[in-house]
Design goal:
mainly alpha, elongated, Fumarase C, Chain A, domain 2, about 5% strand, about 50% helix, Fumarase C, Chain B, domain 1, three-stranded antiparallel sheet, single chain, 2 domains, 10 strands, 18 helices
Length: about 525
């Protein structure tokens, strides 16, 4: 069993770096203030459910059926109501989600519940956090969520695994969930109907996948700026296209920001004087393209930050000393006591499980990914073309015909770009009514997020492909970089990637270059 590598507070700052770390075992802590807040919300739930004087309140999922069947009574026994919540959602299909997404989603679920608006027991929060010190990961099928009413089906599989039902992974081995819990030293979780509904009625899978995809695209965006600088230096291009006054006149903050970063990397560069007056757009317009991507990514930054810190659940329970409005609430709220009394708080039924912000953000992320992928592929195409690469051999081959250089890699990049383009169709606009029109509009945020996660991985491979090409270009005759920043980037690539002398498979080289660029923060 792996040991905990780090510690994260459930109520501390949460960002994509934390979500990446939770893929491996770490310690997640719950402080006394969080326990008190969750317990306060739990007592409010019971007070509202079994209120004095005014009789019992109707609370969705606790006293009722689910979704379109809300007009019918639920099961009276709390254990039966838990089963009622989860069993009917066991309808997912397809391959299992990546463990990194599942564990990140569970951390987000724990974070949402720990804010004390969901009426769950403190044991649920504490037992959720305990699993992160192990490699236990529920097996969750990819298909089934529409990103409305939360990620119901995938989170139901995760919750069932925590109860010892279904399947899970321990140390990357898939097995029955009860065996996995035992192997990880965990006990099956016991839930009532409120606990079960709160665990599934949020967009945690959507948020996790969006945040991780965004993190990957951000890393690729940074890498492409550096690779563009290296390409500029190796070919001897004039860096005038990065002129500060030029980019300020353009009027877009992202272009100004990216241009400044690229000028820093190219500081000290010496143009060859042999290039055309104006470079192809894949070089000359790179700061405008990368700058527009920066502006779009800043929007996604805000959506991800809001989703990581927000509460995704329904209904929500507002103790009187924590609500933002009057204790009486509105037409969707139910007081525990009459309005003239102090009252412990209210329950509010609404739609905070609706994943539209993440759907829009993930769709925008897909568009950014597609254009960044286009840039990387076009730059590699330029680099292997003797008509445009300053006289380097075709395909950067040492002996063209006897050796094929980057020909296979260049062909594969065309395939990767085609796959990215095919996947870039927006999901968030393709609403379909479901659940007897209870869910008559849905955001399809889960589809958008998981698609963007896959695309981010392909974009990383495109960056790795371009990096292998730049490394090979120097080997077959391109000049050494004249800018120290570009020289450091090339040296890192040379150390990690052998030159291509005789033809050999380059798939592992591309992956190695991608890992170097995306995890080491180069340049």
């Amino acid at each position: 069993m792996l040991t905990a590598l780090d510690t994260v507070s459930l109520t501390g700052p949460l960002d994509s770096a934390v979500l990446r770390r939770v893929a491996a075992p770490l310690t997640v802590t719950v402080d006394d203030e969080t326990r008190a807040r969750v317990d306060h919300s739990r007592r409010l739930f019971h007070d509202l459910l079994h209120g004095d004087g005014g009789g019992e309140s109707r609370i969705y999922g606790a006293t009722t059926g689910f979704g379109a069947l809300v007009g019918y009574a639920g099961r009276a026994d709390e254990a039966d109501q838990c089963d009622n919540t989860l069993a009917h959602l066991g309808a997912g299909q397809g391959p299992d989600l990546p463990p990194a997404i599942v564990r990140a989603a569970l951390l987000l679920r724990a974070r949402s519940l720990a804010q004390g608006f969901s009426g769950v027991s403190t044991e649920v929060v504490e037992r959720l956090t305990a699993l992160f010190a192990t490699t236990f990961t529920p097996a969750v099928p990819r298909y089934g969520s529409v990103g409305a009413s939360g990620d119901l089906i995938p989170l139901a599989y995760a919750t069932q695994a925590l109860r010892g039902r279904g399947h899970a992974y321990v140390d990357n081995r898939r097995m029955p969930a009860d065996e996995a819990l035992a192997a990880a030293g965990l006990r099956p979780l016991t839930l009532d109907g409120r606990d079960a509904l709160a665990l599934v009625n949020g967009t945690s899978v959507t948020t996790a996948a969006t945040a991780l995809a965004h993190d990957g695209v951000r890393a690729a965006h940074r890498a492409l700026a550096g690779l563009t600088c290296l390409l500029t230096d190796l070919l001897g291009c004039d860096p005038g296209f990065l002129d500060e006054d030029l980019l300020r006149a353009y009027g877009h903050a992202g272009a100004v920001h990216v241009g400044a970063r690229m000028r820093h990397t190219l500081s000290g560069v010496t143009p060859s004087g042999a290039r055309p007056l104006q470079e192809p757009y894949s070089i000359r317009c790179a700061p405008q393209l990368l700058g527009a991507a920066e502006d779009a990514l800043r929007y996604v930054d805000g959506v991800v930050a809001a989703d990581l810190g927000g509460v995704s659940d329904n209904p929500l329970f507002f103790p009187a000393d924590r609500g933002t409005g009057k204790n009486s609430g509105s037409g969707t709220g139910t007081d525990a006591e009459p309005e003239e009394g102090a009252g412990p708080g209210k329950v509010v039924h609404g739609g905070n499980f609706f994943g539209q912000p993440a759907a829009f953000a993930a769709d925008l992320l897909a568009s950014v990914t597609a254009q960044l992928g286009n840039l990387a592929e076009r730059q590699l195409d330029l680099l292997v073309d003797p008509a445009r690469n300053g006289g380097l051999p075709p395909m950067l081959a040492t002996e063209p015909g006897q050796q094929h250089g980057l020909q296979g890699v260049q062909l594969a990049t065309t395939s990767l770009v085609a796959e990215i383009r095919r996947a870039a169709t927006p999901a968030g606009m393709q609403s379909l009514p479901t659940n007897l029109h209870n869910q008559d509009v849905v955001p399809f945020g889960t589809q958008a997020a998981l698609r963007s996660y896959d695309m981010a991985e392909l974009l990383g491979l495109l960056c790795g492909s371009l990096a292998v090409g730049l490394r090979q270009a120097v080997h077959v005759g391109a000049r050494r970089p004249t800018a120290p920043g570009c020289g450091r980037l090339l040296d890192a690539l040379v150390e990690a990637i052998p030159a291509v002398e005789r033809d050999r498979p380059l798939d592992a080289d591309v992956r190695a270059a991608a890992r170097l660029l995306l995890t080491a923060g180069l340049p």
